[in-house]
Amino acid sequence: MMARDDRQVLLDTALQVEIWARDPWQWMMDCVWTLDEADGGKIKRLPNKPYLQRVVEVWQSERLLAIPKSRRMLLTWVLLACHLWRAIFFPRSAIFIQSKKEDDSDFLIGPKRMGFIYKHLPKHIPWPKATTKFCEVEFEHGSYVRGIPQGPDQLRQYTASAILCDEMAFWDRAEDTWASLKPTIQGGGSVVLVSSAGPGFFQRAVEGRLKDDRR
After folding, report:
1. pLDDT tens digit string along 146-199?
2. 194, exposed or middle or buried, with CB in 10 Å at 0-12, 13-18, 19+?
């Protein structure tokens, strides 16, 4: 028979997981660590910054976001954490991380970014087990994260729950790729475009000028 203290621990854990499943920002504050290569490779908590919390709140409520970033803002870490949260707490999610090159996408989902976050989650919580290989993470409850290169044909055969497009201002075929991603939003999924600032398609997306652009 399970001891009363053990039952209480299980109950407390279940209640905490339920809170995290509703609130990705609270999950990040409680569970997410980052790797700061600019500070000697130190492992650090994700900082409690109001602008990062706002990004998470908007990500949770909107289907399309276009966010400019700069170094040291931690936006890439936060957005990868958002998509990992979705993969963990929403079984059978199909999540794609798209970059200019396949190797870049693999880096984002690999052991120095998303994989790092997963590895450093609290050990006492029974997170869904993950199997990793090049450009892919599969979870035992049916969710998966795949890394893909830029291009409008990369996702045509898939139904995506969420897509993160990284450094899109520097893609060769950004606008064509965007056209191929729109059915994801129309089907109930979400798309996040994030990049260092740059002119062209990404700038128009950030400024909300995609629908009105006639050029």
Report:
1. 999 998 888 877 789 999 999 999 998 888 888 888 888 778 899 999 998 878
2. buried
pTM of the model: 0.90
**What single DSSP character describes residue 209?**
-
Domain limits, the chain: 4-206
Beta bridge pairs of residue 133 = 136
* Interval 67-76: pLDDT, tens: 998 877 799 9
The C-alpha angle 176, 63, 202, rounded to 5 degrees, equals: 40
204 within 8 A of 213, measured Cβ to Cβ: yes
Are 144 and 138 in contact by the 8 Å Cβ rule? The answer is: yes
CATH code at 4-206: 3.40.50.300
3-state SS string for 123-171: CCCCCCCEEEECCEEEECCCCEEEEEECCCCCCCCCCCCEEEEECHHHC
